[in-house]
């Protein structure tokens, strides 16, 4: 799968790239809701002058490629839950999964992409969110399955398998405490305990930063 960056201009109408700094803590999964559109079409729609919606996303993926449309350290309008400091719009990287063409291949690409992003950040599948989790919208709709969300559970398990070699249910969890206070769980893989860096760092009062271009995580206190 090709991964490329094609950022929409800051001047894009309807404030779709608001230039609000973001330190993401989760990744939110969406479906595009368009059965005839490829990733390139979705990227073009963001700057189409007939588009009057104040809505945007970070990454869109199809059966051939993934396109990063807004830098991952900036907010996008995708969660439908406003602009509060703890909203999905202000804290979560959004990934749109295209519904056109070979959807199984697109889903394979999305699984690999999400697993790679989680691994780069030292995160587990507990950092994954649905659009539904932020605003109650039935999205990603192709994972809804009449309210059972079996597609969502399967997607998370596939990401966990890609990430750790085990599905989510079989990953050995590690409870993590900082000064006696429980924080987010880590996991055990091949004899090593992986601890969520942001959760642990912030519990110590440190500022945690991720440089996606240089792939550097830093803690400053």
UniProtKB/TrEMBL annotation:
Enzyme class, first EC level, given as a word: hydrolase
Superkingdom of origin: Bacteria
Iron as UniProt keyword: no
Keyword annotations of the record: Cell wall biogenesis/degradation, Competence, Hydrolase, Sporulation
Enzyme Commission number(s): 3.5.1.28
GO molecular function, one term: N-acetylmuramoyl-L-alanine amidase activity
Protein name: N-acetylmuramoyl-L-alanine amidase
SUPFAM superfamilies: Copper amine oxidase, domain N (SSF55383), N-acetylmuramoyl-L-alanine amidase-like (SSF55846)
InterPro entries: Amidase/PGRP_sf (IPR036505), Amidase_domain (IPR002502), Cu_amine_oxidase-like_N (IPR012854), Mao_N_sf (IPR036582), NAMLAA_amidase_2 (IPR051206)
Family: Belongs to the N-acetylmuramoyl-L-alanine amidase 2 family.
């Amino acid at each position: 799968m090709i991964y490329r960056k094609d950022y929409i201009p800051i001047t894009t109408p309807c404030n779709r790239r608001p230039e609000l700094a973001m330190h993401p803590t989760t990744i939110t999964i969406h479906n595009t809701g368009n059965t005839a559109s490829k990733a390139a079409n979705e990227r073009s729609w963001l700057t189409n002058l007939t588009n009057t919606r104040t809505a945007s996303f970070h990454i869109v993926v199809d059966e051939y490629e993934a396109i990063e449309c807004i830098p991952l350290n900036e907010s996008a309008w995708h969660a439908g839950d406003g602009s509060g400091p703890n909203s999905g719009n202000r804290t979560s990287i959004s990934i749109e999964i295209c519904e056109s063409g070979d959807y199984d291949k697109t889903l394979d690409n999305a699984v690999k992409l999400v697993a790679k992003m989680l691994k780069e950040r030292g995160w587990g599948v507990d950092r994954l969110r649905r659009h539904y989790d932020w605003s109650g919208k039935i999205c990603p709709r192709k994972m809804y399955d009449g309210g059972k969300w079996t597609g969502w559970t399967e997607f998370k398990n596939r990401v966990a398998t890609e990430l750790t070699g085990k599905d989510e249910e079989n990953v050995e969890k590690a409870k993590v405490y900082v000064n006696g206070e429980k924080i987010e769980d880590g996991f055990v893989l091949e004899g090593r305990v992986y601890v969520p860096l942001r959760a642990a760092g912030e519990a110590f009062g440190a500022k945690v930063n991720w440089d996606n271009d240089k792939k550097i995580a830093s803690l400053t206190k």
